[in-house]
Write a structure and sequence with these properties.
Elements: H1 3-19, E1 33-34, E2 58-65, E3 69-70, E4 74-77, H2 88-91, E5 95-97, E6 100-104, E7 110-113, H3 115-128, H4 136-149, E8 161-170, E9 183-192, E10 202-207, H5 231-239, E11 244-249, E12 254-258, E13 261-268, E14 275-279, H6 290-299, H7 302-308, E15 312-316, H8 321-329, E16 333-340, E17 344-353, E18 356-359, H9 367-380, E19 390-392
Parallel strand pairs: 1-4, 10-11, 10-17, 14-15
Antiparallel strand pairs: 2-3, 2-4, 2-9, 5-8, 6-7, 6-8, 7-19, 8-9, 11-12, 12-13, 13-14, 13-16, 16-17, 17-18
Helix pairs in contact: 3-4
Modified residues (N6-(pyridoxal phosphate)lysine): 222
Biased composition (Polar residues): 7-21
Cofactor: pyridoxal 5'-phosphate
Amino acid sequence: MGDKDSITSLAQGQTDDSANPRSLAALDASKLNITLATTLKPLQPIETLCFGQTFSDHMIVATYDPEIGWSAPEVKPHGPITLDPACSCFQYGGNVFEGMKAYLGPNGEARLFRPDMNMRRMEKSCARLALPPIDGDVVLELVKCLVNLEKRWIPKESGYSLYLRPTVIATRPGLGVIASDHAMLYILASPTGPYYQVLKPVSLFAVSENVRAWPGGTGGHKVAGNYSPGFLPQRTAAEKGYEQILWLFGDDRRITEAGAMNFFVVVKRDDGDGVDFITAPLDGTILPGVTRASCLALASDPDFHKESSVRLHPQETVYTMSDLAKWSSEGKLLEALVIGTAVIVGPCNRIGYEGKDIVIPGAGMGPVGTALRKKILDIQEGRTEWKGWGVVCP
Protein backbone atom coordinates (compact mmCIF):
# COMPACT_ATOMS: atom_id res chain seq x y z
CA MET A 1 0.00 0.00 0.00
CA GLY A 2 1.38 3.44 -0.93
CA ASP A 3 1.86 6.31 1.48
CA LYS A 4 -1.18 8.10 0.08
CA ASP A 5 -3.34 5.00 0.52
CA SER A 6 -2.02 4.50 4.04
CA ILE A 7 -2.87 8.06 5.03
CA THR A 8 -6.33 7.78 3.45
CA SER A 9 -6.95 4.47 5.22
CA LEU A 10 -5.81 5.86 8.56
CA ALA A 11 -7.98 8.95 8.19
CA GLN A 12 -10.98 6.84 7.24
CA GLY A 13 -10.35 4.54 10.19
CA GLN A 14 -10.19 7.49 12.59
CA THR A 15 -13.35 8.98 11.16
CA ASP A 16 -15.23 5.72 11.32
CA ASP A 17 -14.14 5.15 14.93
CA SER A 18 -15.09 8.64 16.10
CA ALA A 19 -18.46 8.38 14.35
CA ASN A 20 -19.21 5.03 15.96
CA PRO A 21 -21.78 5.76 18.68
CA ARG A 22 -20.65 2.65 20.58
CA SER A 23 -17.33 4.37 21.34
CA LEU A 24 -19.05 7.38 22.92
CA ALA A 25 -20.57 7.60 26.37
CA ALA A 26 -24.35 7.21 26.37
CA LEU A 27 -26.57 9.36 28.55
CA ASP A 28 -26.79 7.34 31.77
CA ALA A 29 -29.20 8.19 34.60
CA SER A 30 -27.38 5.80 36.96
CA LYS A 31 -24.37 8.15 36.86
CA LEU A 32 -26.40 11.09 38.17
CA ASN A 33 -24.36 13.33 40.46
CA ILE A 34 -26.26 15.41 43.01
CA THR A 35 -25.20 18.81 44.29
CA LEU A 36 -27.94 20.19 46.52
CA ALA A 37 -28.70 23.84 47.16
CA THR A 38 -27.46 24.99 50.56
CA THR A 39 -30.63 27.02 51.14
CA LEU A 40 -34.07 26.10 49.86
CA LYS A 41 -36.46 28.73 48.55
CA PRO A 42 -39.74 29.36 50.37
CA LEU A 43 -42.88 28.13 48.63
CA GLN A 44 -45.07 30.98 47.48
CA PRO A 45 -48.88 31.14 47.77
CA ILE A 46 -50.46 29.30 44.87
CA GLU A 47 -52.65 32.24 43.91
CA THR A 48 -49.47 34.19 43.04
CA LEU A 49 -48.11 31.56 40.65
CA CYS A 50 -47.80 32.70 37.04
CA PHE A 51 -46.93 30.22 34.31
CA GLY A 52 -43.17 29.80 33.92
CA GLN A 53 -42.19 32.55 36.38
CA THR A 54 -41.27 30.56 39.49
CA PHE A 55 -38.68 27.78 39.49
CA SER A 56 -37.82 25.05 41.94
CA ASP A 57 -34.52 24.77 43.80
CA HIS A 58 -32.76 22.44 41.39
CA MET A 59 -32.29 21.55 37.73
CA ILE A 60 -30.57 18.73 35.87
CA VAL A 61 -27.81 19.35 33.33
CA ALA A 62 -25.76 17.10 31.02
CA THR A 63 -23.55 17.94 28.04
CA TYR A 64 -22.58 16.16 24.84
CA ASP A 65 -19.09 16.34 23.35
CA PRO A 66 -18.33 14.68 20.01
CA GLU A 67 -15.09 13.19 21.35
CA ILE A 68 -16.53 11.89 24.62
CA GLY A 69 -20.29 11.54 24.30
CA TRP A 70 -22.65 12.44 27.13
CA SER A 71 -21.30 13.63 30.45
CA ALA A 72 -22.60 12.25 33.70
CA PRO A 73 -25.84 14.17 34.37
CA GLU A 74 -25.87 16.43 37.40
CA VAL A 75 -28.51 17.77 39.74
CA LYS A 76 -27.44 21.29 40.67
CA PRO A 77 -29.05 24.41 42.12
CA HIS A 78 -31.25 26.24 39.62
CA GLY A 79 -29.29 29.08 38.11
CA PRO A 80 -27.54 30.54 35.05
CA ILE A 81 -25.58 28.43 32.61
CA THR A 82 -22.41 29.57 30.84
CA LEU A 83 -22.18 29.33 27.05
CA ASP A 84 -19.86 30.64 24.37
CA PRO A 85 -21.58 33.56 22.56
CA ALA A 86 -20.83 31.84 19.24
CA CYS A 87 -22.83 28.75 20.22
CA SER A 88 -25.10 27.58 17.43
CA CYS A 89 -28.15 27.72 19.72
CA PHE A 90 -27.83 31.52 19.58
CA GLN A 91 -26.80 31.79 15.95
CA TYR A 92 -28.97 29.16 14.22
CA GLY A 93 -31.72 28.21 16.66
CA GLY A 94 -30.79 24.58 17.28
CA ASN A 95 -33.09 24.22 20.28
CA VAL A 96 -35.85 21.74 21.14
CA PHE A 97 -37.92 21.31 24.26
CA GLU A 98 -40.81 19.46 25.82
CA GLY A 99 -43.62 20.60 28.10
CA MET A 100 -44.97 18.13 30.65
CA LYS A 101 -46.37 18.20 34.17
CA ALA A 102 -46.11 16.35 37.46
CA TYR A 103 -49.17 16.08 39.71
CA LEU A 104 -49.85 14.90 43.24
CA GLY A 105 -52.07 11.84 43.40
CA PRO A 106 -54.63 11.15 46.15
CA ASN A 107 -52.03 9.26 48.20
CA GLY A 108 -49.43 12.00 47.86
CA GLU A 109 -47.53 10.24 45.09
CA ALA A 110 -45.98 12.23 42.24
CA ARG A 111 -47.50 11.37 38.85
CA LEU A 112 -46.74 12.10 35.21
CA PHE A 113 -49.19 12.02 32.29
CA ARG A 114 -48.22 9.87 29.29
CA PRO A 115 -44.55 10.93 29.51
CA ASP A 116 -43.45 8.33 26.95
CA MET A 117 -45.17 10.43 24.26
CA ASN A 118 -43.15 13.48 25.25
CA MET A 119 -39.94 11.49 25.08
CA ARG A 120 -40.63 10.04 21.64
CA ARG A 121 -41.44 13.54 20.39
CA MET A 122 -38.22 14.92 21.88
CA GLU A 123 -36.19 12.24 20.12
CA LYS A 124 -37.83 13.13 16.81
CA SER A 125 -37.34 16.86 17.36
CA CYS A 126 -33.62 16.37 18.04
CA ALA A 127 -33.30 14.23 14.92
CA ARG A 128 -35.11 16.86 12.81
CA LEU A 129 -32.57 19.52 13.86
CA ALA A 130 -29.63 17.13 13.42
CA LEU A 131 -28.72 17.44 17.09
CA PRO A 132 -26.74 14.66 18.76
CA PRO A 133 -29.11 11.74 19.36
CA ILE A 134 -30.72 11.47 22.76
CA ASP A 135 -32.34 8.53 24.55
CA GLY A 136 -35.77 9.67 25.69
CA ASP A 137 -36.12 6.78 28.12
CA VAL A 138 -33.03 7.99 29.98
CA VAL A 139 -34.30 11.58 29.92
CA LEU A 140 -37.52 10.30 31.48
CA GLU A 141 -35.57 8.64 34.29
CA LEU A 142 -33.87 11.98 34.93
CA VAL A 143 -37.22 13.77 34.88
CA LYS A 144 -38.52 11.35 37.51
CA CYS A 145 -35.43 11.96 39.66
CA LEU A 146 -36.00 15.72 39.51
CA VAL A 147 -39.72 15.35 40.28
CA ASN A 148 -39.03 13.24 43.35
CA LEU A 149 -36.33 15.64 44.54
CA GLU A 150 -38.64 18.65 44.05
CA LYS A 151 -41.85 17.01 45.21
CA ARG A 152 -42.52 19.74 47.78
CA TRP A 153 -42.99 22.13 44.85
CA ILE A 154 -46.02 20.24 43.48
CA PRO A 155 -49.13 22.13 44.66
CA LYS A 156 -51.77 19.95 46.32
CA GLU A 157 -54.73 21.81 44.83
CA SER A 158 -56.57 20.44 41.78
CA GLY A 159 -55.62 22.18 38.55
CA TYR A 160 -52.12 22.95 39.82
CA SER A 161 -48.96 21.06 38.93
CA LEU A 162 -45.19 21.14 38.57
CA TYR A 163 -44.44 22.10 34.97
CA LEU A 164 -41.36 20.36 33.56
CA ARG A 165 -39.27 21.66 30.68
CA PRO A 166 -36.67 19.18 29.32
CA THR A 167 -34.61 21.13 26.79
CA VAL A 168 -31.80 20.28 24.37
CA ILE A 169 -29.74 23.11 22.88
CA ALA A 170 -27.01 23.14 20.24
CA THR A 171 -23.73 24.30 21.81
CA ARG A 172 -21.15 23.98 19.02
CA PRO A 173 -18.92 27.05 19.49
CA GLY A 174 -18.55 28.46 16.00
CA LEU A 175 -20.29 30.39 13.24
CA GLY A 176 -20.27 27.72 10.54
CA VAL A 177 -23.69 26.93 9.12
CA ILE A 178 -23.55 23.22 9.96
CA ALA A 179 -25.26 20.86 12.35
CA SER A 180 -24.06 21.13 15.92
CA ASP A 181 -21.98 18.22 17.22
CA HIS A 182 -22.14 19.63 20.78
CA ALA A 183 -25.29 19.81 22.89
CA MET A 184 -26.60 20.50 26.36
CA LEU A 185 -29.59 18.87 28.02
CA TYR A 186 -31.19 20.64 30.93
CA ILE A 187 -34.43 20.04 32.79
CA LEU A 188 -36.27 22.79 34.67
CA ALA A 189 -39.20 22.54 37.07
CA SER A 190 -41.74 25.30 37.67
CA PRO A 191 -44.83 25.17 39.91
CA THR A 192 -47.84 26.47 38.06
CA GLY A 193 -51.57 26.90 38.23
CA PRO A 194 -54.18 26.99 35.49
CA TYR A 195 -52.82 28.63 32.32
CA TYR A 196 -55.77 30.97 32.42
CA GLN A 197 -56.48 31.97 36.02
CA VAL A 198 -60.19 31.95 35.22
CA LEU A 199 -61.29 29.39 32.63
CA LYS A 200 -63.02 31.98 30.50
CA PRO A 201 -63.57 31.62 26.76
CA VAL A 202 -60.70 32.72 24.52
CA SER A 203 -61.21 34.90 21.45
CA LEU A 204 -59.28 34.04 18.28
CA PHE A 205 -58.16 36.16 15.33
CA ALA A 206 -57.83 34.16 12.10
CA VAL A 207 -54.60 34.94 10.24
CA SER A 208 -53.61 33.85 6.73
CA GLU A 209 -50.92 36.38 5.74
CA ASN A 210 -48.54 34.80 8.27
CA VAL A 211 -48.21 31.05 8.77
CA ARG A 212 -47.12 29.03 11.79
CA ALA A 213 -45.79 26.10 9.76
CA TRP A 214 -45.53 24.80 6.21
CA PRO A 215 -45.17 21.40 4.50
CA GLY A 216 -41.67 20.02 4.92
CA GLY A 217 -40.90 22.45 7.74
CA THR A 218 -40.70 21.88 11.49
CA GLY A 219 -44.32 22.46 12.53
CA GLY A 220 -44.71 18.83 13.53
CA HIS A 221 -41.79 19.07 15.97
CA LYS A 222 -41.40 20.97 19.22
CA VAL A 223 -38.55 23.26 18.25
CA ALA A 224 -37.95 26.76 19.60
CA GLY A 225 -37.94 28.35 16.13
CA ASN A 226 -41.65 27.59 15.71
CA TYR A 227 -42.64 30.10 18.38
CA SER A 228 -40.98 33.51 18.02
CA PRO A 229 -42.32 34.18 14.47
CA GLY A 230 -45.80 34.16 16.02
CA PHE A 231 -45.11 36.97 18.47
CA LEU A 232 -45.74 39.83 16.04
CA PRO A 233 -49.04 38.43 14.67
CA GLN A 234 -50.06 37.76 18.29
CA ARG A 235 -49.42 41.41 19.12
CA THR A 236 -51.52 42.47 16.15
CA ALA A 237 -54.36 40.22 17.28
CA ALA A 238 -54.22 41.74 20.76
CA GLU A 239 -54.41 45.24 19.29
CA LYS A 240 -57.60 44.17 17.51
CA GLY A 241 -59.11 42.84 20.76
CA TYR A 242 -58.39 39.12 20.40
CA GLU A 243 -56.42 36.90 22.75
CA GLN A 244 -54.92 34.30 20.43
CA ILE A 245 -54.18 33.63 16.76
CA LEU A 246 -56.07 31.05 14.71
CA TRP A 247 -53.47 30.01 12.15
CA LEU A 248 -54.72 29.43 8.60
CA PHE A 249 -52.80 27.92 5.70
CA GLY A 250 -53.13 27.94 1.92
CA ASP A 251 -55.41 29.67 -0.52
CA ASP A 252 -58.36 27.69 0.83
CA ARG A 253 -57.70 29.01 4.38
CA ARG A 254 -57.25 25.63 6.03
CA ILE A 255 -57.51 25.74 9.82
CA THR A 256 -54.41 24.48 11.62
CA GLU A 257 -53.69 25.55 15.21
CA ALA A 258 -54.60 28.25 17.73
CA GLY A 259 -51.66 30.16 19.19
CA ALA A 260 -49.32 27.41 20.38
CA MET A 261 -52.19 24.98 20.94
CA ASN A 262 -54.08 22.37 18.96
CA PHE A 263 -57.57 23.40 17.86
CA PHE A 264 -60.79 21.38 17.72
CA VAL A 265 -64.41 22.09 16.82
CA VAL A 266 -67.55 20.24 17.81
CA VAL A 267 -70.12 20.06 15.00
CA LYS A 268 -73.67 18.71 15.10
CA ARG A 269 -74.21 15.76 12.76
CA ASP A 270 -77.03 15.65 10.21
CA ASP A 271 -77.95 12.08 11.23
CA GLY A 272 -78.48 13.10 14.87
CA ASP A 273 -75.99 10.49 16.09
CA GLY A 274 -74.01 12.69 18.47
CA VAL A 275 -71.44 15.19 17.23
CA ASP A 276 -68.31 15.29 15.09
CA PHE A 277 -65.11 16.14 16.97
CA ILE A 278 -62.87 17.66 14.30
CA THR A 279 -59.21 18.67 14.17
CA ALA A 280 -56.56 19.06 11.49
CA PRO A 281 -54.57 15.93 10.52
CA LEU A 282 -50.92 15.36 11.41
CA ASP A 283 -49.58 16.35 7.99
CA GLY A 284 -46.26 17.70 9.24
CA THR A 285 -47.60 21.19 9.96
CA ILE A 286 -49.44 20.21 13.16
CA LEU A 287 -47.73 19.51 16.48
CA PRO A 288 -48.61 15.98 17.67
CA GLY A 289 -49.75 17.15 21.09
CA VAL A 290 -50.04 14.69 23.96
CA THR A 291 -53.34 16.22 25.09
CA ARG A 292 -54.52 16.24 21.47
CA ALA A 293 -53.86 12.50 21.14
CA SER A 294 -55.52 11.85 24.50
CA CYS A 295 -58.68 13.76 23.56
CA LEU A 296 -58.93 11.87 20.26
CA ALA A 297 -58.49 8.56 22.07
CA LEU A 298 -61.19 9.41 24.60
CA ALA A 299 -63.49 10.63 21.83
CA SER A 300 -63.34 7.19 20.18
CA ASP A 301 -63.75 5.21 23.42
CA PRO A 302 -67.24 3.77 24.09
CA ASP A 303 -66.51 3.67 27.83
CA PHE A 304 -65.90 7.41 27.82
CA HIS A 305 -69.08 7.98 25.81
CA LYS A 306 -71.09 6.06 28.37
CA GLU A 307 -69.42 7.67 31.35
CA SER A 308 -69.71 11.23 30.07
CA SER A 309 -73.05 10.93 28.24
CA VAL A 310 -71.53 12.39 25.06
CA ARG A 311 -71.39 10.63 21.71
CA LEU A 312 -68.34 11.75 19.74
CA HIS A 313 -67.13 10.92 16.25
CA PRO A 314 -63.47 12.01 16.10
CA GLN A 315 -62.23 13.19 12.71
CA GLU A 316 -58.72 14.23 11.71
CA THR A 317 -59.42 16.00 8.45
CA VAL A 318 -58.71 19.15 6.47
CA TYR A 319 -61.34 21.82 7.07
CA THR A 320 -61.42 25.51 6.23
CA MET A 321 -62.75 28.84 7.40
CA SER A 322 -65.50 28.47 4.80
CA ASP A 323 -66.54 25.23 6.47
CA LEU A 324 -66.49 26.91 9.88
CA ALA A 325 -68.61 29.84 8.63
CA LYS A 326 -71.07 27.44 6.99
CA TRP A 327 -71.44 25.30 10.14
CA SER A 328 -71.98 28.46 12.17
CA SER A 329 -74.65 29.83 9.82
CA GLU A 330 -76.47 26.49 9.91
CA GLY A 331 -76.39 26.34 13.70
CA LYS A 332 -74.16 23.24 13.68
CA LEU A 333 -71.03 24.75 15.25
CA LEU A 334 -71.47 23.89 18.92
CA GLU A 335 -68.03 24.28 20.50
CA ALA A 336 -64.51 25.43 19.61
CA LEU A 337 -61.67 24.24 21.87
CA VAL A 338 -57.99 25.01 22.40
CA ILE A 339 -56.09 21.98 23.67
CA GLY A 340 -52.56 21.58 25.02
CA THR A 341 -50.39 20.68 28.00
CA ALA A 342 -50.62 24.09 29.65
CA VAL A 343 -54.31 24.85 29.09
CA ILE A 344 -55.52 21.18 29.00
CA VAL A 345 -58.89 21.98 27.37
CA GLY A 346 -60.21 25.52 27.05
CA PRO A 347 -63.23 27.11 25.30
CA CYS A 348 -63.32 29.71 22.52
CA ASN A 349 -66.20 32.16 22.17
CA ARG A 350 -65.54 34.01 18.90
CA ILE A 351 -63.29 33.94 15.86
CA GLY A 352 -62.50 37.14 14.00
CA TYR A 353 -62.25 36.68 10.23
CA GLU A 354 -62.41 39.24 7.41
CA GLY A 355 -63.86 41.95 9.63
CA LYS A 356 -66.59 39.81 11.19
CA ASP A 357 -66.89 37.47 14.15
CA ILE A 358 -67.97 33.86 14.01
CA VAL A 359 -69.65 33.52 17.38
CA ILE A 360 -69.53 30.21 19.23
CA PRO A 361 -72.76 29.55 21.17
CA GLY A 362 -72.78 29.36 24.95
CA ALA A 363 -71.15 31.50 27.61
CA GLY A 364 -68.37 29.09 28.52
CA MET A 365 -67.24 25.51 28.18
CA GLY A 366 -69.74 23.23 26.45
CA PRO A 367 -70.55 19.62 27.38
CA VAL A 368 -67.82 18.07 25.20
CA GLY A 369 -65.03 20.32 26.45
CA THR A 370 -66.25 19.93 30.03
CA ALA A 371 -66.28 16.13 29.83
CA LEU A 372 -62.83 15.93 28.22
CA ARG A 373 -61.23 18.36 30.64
CA LYS A 374 -62.69 16.61 33.69
CA LYS A 375 -61.59 13.19 32.48
CA ILE A 376 -58.06 14.24 31.69
CA LEU A 377 -57.67 16.06 35.01
CA ASP A 378 -59.00 13.00 36.85
CA ILE A 379 -56.39 10.85 35.12
CA GLN A 380 -53.57 13.32 35.63
CA GLU A 381 -54.32 13.77 39.32
CA GLY A 382 -54.80 10.06 39.97
CA ARG A 383 -58.52 9.99 40.74
CA THR A 384 -59.02 7.67 37.77
CA GLU A 385 -56.74 5.02 36.27
CA TRP A 386 -57.06 4.90 32.48
CA LYS A 387 -55.13 2.82 29.94
CA GLY A 388 -51.87 3.26 31.86
CA TRP A 389 -51.76 6.98 31.06
CA GLY A 390 -50.89 7.97 34.61
CA VAL A 391 -47.28 7.12 35.54
CA VAL A 392 -46.22 7.21 39.20
CA CYS A 393 -42.68 8.43 39.84
CA PRO A 394 -41.05 5.66 41.90
